[in-house]
Amino acid sequence: MIPPLAALQAFETIARRKSFSLAAEDLHLTPSAVSHQVAKLENLLGVRMFERSARGVELTPAGQQYLQRVASALGAINSATEDLRHGVQDTLYVHSSPSFASLWLMPRIARFTKRHPNISLMLSASHVHSDFKLGQMDIDIRYGLPNWPHLEVEPILTEKILPLASPEFIRTHGLHTPADLLRVPLIQSSVSVVQWPEWFARFCADQRPERMGLRFDRAMMSLDAAVQKLGVALESTSIGQSLIDSGKLQPVFEDAMCMQVRAHFMVYPARHASRQEVKSFVEWLREEAEH
After folding, report:
1. If you compute the radius of gyration of the chain from its CA atoms, what whole number of angstroms results?
2. DSSP alpha helix (H) spans, the chain
3. For the segment 111-146, what is each residue's pLDDT rounded down to a tens digit?
4. Residue 155's pLDDT is what?
5. Domain 5-73, CATH 1.10.10.10 — does that match?
């Protein structure tokens, strides 16, 4: 069941503008016509999408959840339409987990565009996995444990997970052994496949951290906190390589105290594998991961 496009456009525009009147201006409609479209959508779905208050228009929890899916679908339709209007061909839509996209993929993406100037690359990032049934994405780069049935799943690289901190922080706190980490704030990424208790169990079995200094839901935020000398982060040297190369961070210990994981994956439906744009990107990503 697909609601009328006019109703979806009205819903998305009101949510973005936080106003029925401003949405009406954007859509070149009257406010009553916009309200009618939203009412039609709410009746069709059987849920209330907006709440009006003195502060304006706010999405209900159901509306927020629906917007996350619908906005990207409308964006895909808009992009496809603009590409067709301007004669853009060979478009590749890639979605990625945010930290991988920002810290690993973006520093390398120029090499892909140089090698494949005919491919128009559309890259987006969020923690929500792509729903291939919506036809929005060609490839999804996911982080986590690979439990995605009925999809092609290929690990990208083997990562070393190590305690990372700024050189100054390491010197100031005299960090030489795993036990020394118990004296300083520990930074944890809550979505990481390796957590501090696991690392201590492997390399300092008789010690356990009692609490984390800071917790984040993104690796890039954990790494940035370590750069700011707020503590020691337990993160991938692959994801943090640019910060290590610049001298902002360094491993606290040698590689012998790393935990190796394969946690970033290329994911796509088998039917996408035959597309030349997908083949080109997958081959390029494999080469980059080997360097």
Report:
1. 23
2. 5-17, 20-27, 31-45, 61-85, 98-99, 109-115, 167-173, 196-203, 219-227, 241-245, 276-290
3. 999 999 988 888 988 888 887 876 678 999 999 989
4. 96
5. yes
